[in-house]
Amino acid sequence: MDLEEHTLEQAGDHCEECGAKLTADELAQVIESGGPTLCAIHAADVVPVADEDTPATES
Fold first, then answer.
1. To 5 degrees, how large is the angle CA 10–CA 30–CA 22?
2. Residue 13, C-beta contacts closer than 8 angstroms, at least 6 positions apart
3. Is 35:7 a contact under the CB 8 Å cutoff?
4. Would 11 disulfide with which of 1, 4, 30, 36, CB 3.0-4.6 Å?
5. What are the pLDDT digits (tens) for 1-55?
6. Domain extent at residue 25
7. SS3 52
8. Closest listed residue to residue 38, CA positions, set 50, 49, 47, 51
9. What pTM did the predictor assign?
10. Quick one: CA torsion of 35, 37, 42, 43, rounded to 10 degrees?
11. SS3 of 33, please?
């Protein structure tokens, strides 16, 4: 079993959602964050998962 920490050193050059070719800035962001490989438009759509300890609020 491999428990060694891995880092993303290389990413695909196309968005996983729409297939658009990523710019150099988008590729740098993907590598820095560790993925997923998304263009700027789809990366903006990613919603962080709420902590389980925080109760959900209802309107």
1. 85
2. 21, 22, 27
3. no
4. 30
5. 555 555 555 678 899 999 999 999 999 998 888 888 999 999 988 877 776 665 6
6. 11-45
7. coil
8. 47
9. 0.61
10. 30
11. helix
Number of domains in the chain: 1
Q: What is the pLDDT of residue 19?
A: 93
Residue 35's pLDDT is 80
39 located within any domain: yes
Rounded Cα distance, 22 and 56, in Å? 35
Cis link prior to 36 (omega < 30° from 0)? yes
For residue 54, being part of any structural domain is answered with: no
| Residue spans of alpha helices (H) in the chain | 24-33, 40-44
